[in-house]
Amino acid sequence: MTVPLTVLVAVAALALAGWAGWFVAKDRAVILRQLFGAAVVEGLLVVQGVVAGVLLATGTTTGSPGLFWGYVLASLVILPFAALLAFAERTRWSSVVLLAAAITIVFLQLRLVQVWQT
Fold this sequence. Notes:
The chain crosses the membrane at residues 6-24, 36-56, 68-88, 95-116. This is Integral membrane protein. This protein is an all-alpha fold. The protein has one domain (3-117). The protein is 84% helix and 0% strand. α1 runs antiparallel to α2, α2 (32-57) runs antiparallel to α3 and α3 packs antiparallel against α4 (92-117).
């Protein structure tokens, strides 16, 4: 897996987390632009999954493929579920959910790098 792409995903997720954190501090609900930001992060995650799939298909190996793909799939489903919850809950807690999801994506990126390098 390419480290620059992983860093890009982590930075984008951190930016989304900061934006959601600001809304938590201001006691505001998630707005549509934040969900578009989450969609951008999700798009980067899809690209990352495709790149990882191509690398594994062309002979690159990872220590634990099942664990690796588990983390990839988990990162792909977290933001859509958070967006659904944020859309349904129109209070400050929608921002908290988006913040938690974005921070989880950052930590999953760190773990993906660790699993890839073993």
